[in-house]
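ugh ok fine here u go
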Amino acid sequence: MTGIVVGLDGSPHSQDALNWAIAESSLRNAPVTVLAVAPAPGSIWGITGAIPASEETTDKVRQAAQKMVDDTASSAGQAITLSVVSGVPADELIKASEGADLLVVAARGSGGFARLVIGSVSSQVVQHARCPVVVVPGRAH
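structure:
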């Protein structure tokens, strides 16, 4: 995936990240790819991602992500590519960073001091991504 890759989990925070990525793509004249991850369950040995997400889970993630992308793309007047994979969200975002020019993720937080700290996925992505990462801070929704 070249251009800007943005992680989407269906939350209002990830919608903010998608909006930011679209605005940035206009400045860079770069394509936007949305990456939605159907979380893979842990195996009986506790190895997350060893078992792929069910088809039902993947379809639900795809439908929810497609709705967000369609709603956003129509108002932005821009084409956005959607990629849905099964796995561990941080791992899949890091993999996607290998071919991206920029990776955009949302910061998660529940309020108070939590707003000063990025979420666990964002933290892992920032530490291990192979391209520049933008963490879009959450706002009160």
